[in-house]
Amino acid sequence: MKNQSKEGRNPSASPLEKYFQHYNEKNLLPLHMPGHQRKRDMGTALPYAYDYTEVEELDNLHAPEGILQEAMNRTAAYYGCSDCFYLVNGSSSGLQAGIFTLLEEGDEVVVARNCHRSVFYALSLRKAKIHFLLPEFWEDFSCFGSVSLKEVERLLREFPKSKALIFTSPSYEGVVSDVEGIARLCHENGLSLLVDEAHGAHFSPKRGTSFPESAISLGADLVVQSPHKTLCSLTQSAWILGKGQRYSREKLSFYLSVFQTTSPSYPLMLSLEKATTLLEREREALFARWKEVMIGFREKARTLSYFSFLWEKEEACFAMDFTKIFLRALGIPRLRLGKDLARLLREDYGIESEMHSGENLLLMTGPFISEDELDRLFIALKDIERRFGEEKGKPLRSKLLSSALYQISIADNTLQISEGLKEGEELSFHDGEGRICLEYLSLYPPGIPLLFPGEKLTAEKIQGIEALEKEGIELQYSRHRQGERGKLIFQKDKGNM
After folding, report:
1. Dist CA 393 CA 450 (whole Å)
2. How do residues 428-472 score in pLDDT, each as one tens digit?
3. For residues 471 and 400, is the Cβ–Cβ distance under 8 A?
4. Alpha-carbon gap, residue 253 to 240, rounded angstroms
5. For site-directed labelling of 296, which of 98, 303, 321, 388 has its Cα 20 to 30 A away?
6. Separation CA 420–CA 434 (nearest Å)
7. pTM
8. 301: containing domain
9. Does any domain span residue 42?
10. Other Cβ atoms within 10 Å of 293 Cβ, number
11. What's the domain count of the chain?
């Protein structure tokens, strides 16, 4: 690579690289993924210097026997589990491979309603029969709470033929569930447990540390993590951890080859190895510093009068990951929606958020976040209060993401979604009341489907979707049609599938 100019620009840079350089010059505070937050002192020149292919001495991800296997073994050792497989197609590929490993075609499975859409895509391909597990929905923050042990126990009694249970912990917003209790119930009833812990790579393999204990240490059989979300690996990198005898290592290895690229990126794998090295070297010290910085910010945030934070609900759930800053404005009409607050933080204060959803805004921190950087956020929020605060403490809730949007219009919360690509009829969703939908409709992020194939579209859902589109909140259709918005594919004949 050619040397960069004194101004930091590479004169021979590609158009995309020039765009990246221009973006970096804005000096935005990246309170969003990935976890390394573009810190430049990671000690490795990425990506070109290490962009290899599977030559003899560099091992092969699909048949590892050398340096890659050694690296994955180190990761497994850190988390105290039997297996670790590197993922270069993101957590989605790990979830898909895990589902195909634990389930045979047509098997019954218990799945939390707030799982990522990649879970449901895989279950559709597996032609699984889904029994929905409905976590509590917090109307005041328009998000899901912890998975209830009582609800898990009820579903396992009601559907004894289920082969596995799948849920997310922590959630995108940082809500943690009782993995240990759920794992115990699953194993007592002969089920395997797959946990989407994509946002919990920083969770500890031991009790009594700064963060909640990792699902793999609490009894889960397979756990998928995305160290790029909360640690320091590159975007798209992830790993799947396995422990115990309730899954086949051979099947998992096979399905990972099915769902992953045959040209795995060495920079991605190197970044996973770098994340492992960071965990090995720093261990609890890194996370203790992170916790200290977050506690300091939380104390300052308590002095804010016009913002409400999700951590106020901490006593209402099993546990919460305090590295997430999930908030909404109160009493500020101009900032009724999260997208409005996101735009203001970006344009006036140079702070980039992770995502906005309805009335809410999510800001993410990483292990290298500093007190000064969070002070920058606090000062911005304080200034926003000074500029725009009008009706102190009065909530302004439009109820864009109420629980009604996540209700599923099916018998006993059981759904067969394998018909998702069946030929159907395209209609405006306004005209679809009472019709069977044949595609997914998702708010992305966080990627939780609002509609499923096989679900009957209700008047309540139509009203909710209309409200979202009226506010300019982008929805993703699984059957993307260029330029087509507000239309869905429905079963041609009215009635049940």
Report:
1. 31
2. 888 899 988 888 899 887 889 999 888 889 998 998 888 888 887
3. yes
4. 11
5. 388
6. 17
7. 0.89
8. 284-388
9. no
10. 21
11. 3
